[in-house]
Structure formats: C-alpha cells, structure tokens
Amino acid sequence: MEGLVLELPFILDSFLMVFAGILVMIMACGFAMLESGLTRSKNTATIMTKNVLIFSIASVAYYMVGYNIMYGDGNAFMGSGAFLSGIEYDSHSVYADFFFQMVFVATAASVISGTVAERIKLWPFLIFVLLLTGIIYPIQGHWTWGESLEFLSGFSDYAGSTIVHSVGGWAALAGVLLLGARKGKYEGGKIRAIPGSNIPLATLGTFLLWFGWFGFNGGSALAMHSADLADEIGMVVASTNTAAATGAIVAAILTRIIYQKVDTTMVLNGALGGLVGITAGPDVVPWIAMIIGFVSAVLIVIAVPAFDKIRIDDPVGALSVHLVCGIWGTLAVGIFNADVAIIDQLKGIILIGAFVFAASFAIWMILKVTMGIRVDEETEVEGLDMKECGLEAYPEFGKGAQKMF
C-alpha cells in the first residue's frame, strides 16, 4: 500500500498526458474534416491522404529525432541523440510525455495543409512536413519549452499559441507566398469566392477540434497529482470552452452587422480563433477568456478578408485563425498576467516567427526549384485526386460516374 501511495503522483501525471494526448489526436480528424469541408470535393481524397500522412510522419519523425532535439541536453540542432535516448523523468513516464508532445507537433503541421490546399503537390508537401516536425518545430521548442535559450526565459506560452499554432501559421505563410493563389481566385482585379463543398463536414471538424482542445490545453498542466493541480485543469478547460463559445457568438453578430447575413464559415473560424487565442494563457478565470475570445473573433472577421485583399489565398482561413490569433493570444498573456511582461512575449513572437518563416521559406524554395511544389494547371482544374491518389472521393458524382453507369 505504501508503494502505491508513493507511485500515485507518477501514475496520475502519466495518465493525464496519455489521456490528454488521445484527445488531441482527435484533432487530426477535426483538421481533415474542416479542410475537406471548406474546399472542393474534387480534391477531397488528396486532402484525406495528406492529413493521415501528416500525423503519421509527425509521429515517426518526432520519435526518431524531434523529441530529443526539443528536450535533450545537447545543442538546439541535434539534441542528445535519437529515439528518446538519454531522457528520463522521475515524475512521469517518458513515453507518456513523448506521446503528448508528439500530438502537438502534428497539430502545427496540420495548420499548413489547409492554407496550401487545392494546388500543392503531395510529395513536396510531405517532405516539408518531415522537416518541420523533425527539425524546425523541435528547435524553437528547445528554446522555449526546453528552456535552453536565456533570451526567452521570460516568455510564457502555456499550451502553444505561438510555439504550436503560430509556428504552423508562419510555415504556411512562407509556403503560400511561393505557391500562389488557386486558379481563378483573383481575376480581373476582383476576389472570387470559391465555396467549400460540405459545410456540415466543416462544422463536424470544428466540433472535433473544439473537443480535442480540452486535452490540448487541459493536458498542458502536465500534472494532476494534487487538488490545486486538478482545480487548475478544471479552470483551464472551462476557460478554453468559454473563449471558443464567445468567439463563435461574436463572429455571428459581426457578420450579421457587416454582411446582413450570418457567415457560417466565420462562425466556425470565430470559435477556432477563440481556442487559439486562449491557448497561450488558459489558466485564467472564464471572464478573461471571454475577452480573449471576443478579440479573437474580431481579428478573424478583419483578417480573413484582409488576406484576400493582399492576394494571399487561404482556403480555410488558417492564417487568420492560427497565425493572427496565435500572436494575439500570446500578447494577451502579457496583458492579463501580471507576472509576464509584454516585451518578453514580443521577443518570443518575433524570434520564433522570424526563425520559422525564414527556415520554412528556404525549404519551400528548395522544393520549388528542385521538384516543383504546384500541380500543373490541368490537374488543378480537374482536381488533384486522380493525379495524386488515383481515385475520387465521390466517384458517383465525379468523372467516375461515367464509367460506373
């Protein structure tokens, strides 16, 4: 009995990471459903393939090298080895810790998929995911959560508004600048709306992401072996939900005022923006989360058309949600937490953003020059599914229907 009592904190903290990691894994499904719902059906099979392989590549790359780069004792490039070698914890299982951290890096990579959807070649994209999850993400994670860079010692990011979400946003921005807009999106000086194929599917994806976020933020307490920690997790989950709910409501109200109609996609992204915004500092009371969610929704409604105006084609609004609201959420910690200085938050945002954008731009450029990153015009018009995957997601309604009936 005494041994069990002594081991109980280890058991509880390890269980939290495993259970929360499983919840975050559901977000992979959420990203897939959201992206496919907000894009055209002729590209759905490719999008499904991308999202399954994003999670798979992140799992293997982070295990082989990424985790050791991020949490090893060596330098920020090679860590202390590979395959979790040389890393042990007295307080919890190293495997539980690895799994929980791995689903975060998969989330960062998933952000990119929606931004470059409907015109990116599959294999160059997957190579970029490999390098992001194995090297780029772990290096900046080593500086911050790995606590290796003194310059960022005052930087605070509870669950990753910058370290996860903005990292995905900066990498996506670098890629889309080199990739260009979808054919027909900007013609004759006008912005052409390209509606998604399945709003119910996008809504399902949003709810799955919302659900998984309770593990994303709640699990980031990293421990639950005391009453105070359990109370903190409860507050984090409650505030996470409140920020998302506020974001959805405010987006609905604003679009009704601006467009005289409630824009469903803005409501979905308003909820997601609230979730990203609260992620840097979810350990606050819910009324503060309401303020963060409110501002996040305002930023979404402003940023989505603003990116279109400067001809940055983001089919799912990922840059507005994950990059813009990620920056806001990180700054909000400096506003609402008296122990954190805004200047320290700015240092983290700028350094991480500059590093990730520069490294990502270089990799995307190399891929563009050597392999090409964009499909040819005919493939883009016909849809990527047959060219990249050899099948259609909905053959009864596509070209496959001509062969079947």
TrEMBL record:
It is a multi-pass membrane protein. InterPro entries: Ammonium/urea_transptr, Ammonium_transpt, Ammonium_transpt_CS, Ammonium_transptr_marine, NH4_transpt_AmtB-like_dom. GO terms for cellular component: plasma membrane. GO terms for biological process: ammonium homeostasis. Keywords: Ammonia transport, Membrane, Transmembrane, Transmembrane helix, Transport. It is found in: Cell membrane; Membrane. Residues 16-394 form the Ammonium transporter AmtB-like domain. The keyword Metal-binding does not apply. PANTHER family: AMMONIUM TRANSPORTER, AMMONIUM TRANSPORTER SLL1017-RELATED. Belongs to the ammonia transporter channel (TC 1.A.11.2) family. This is Ammonium transporter.
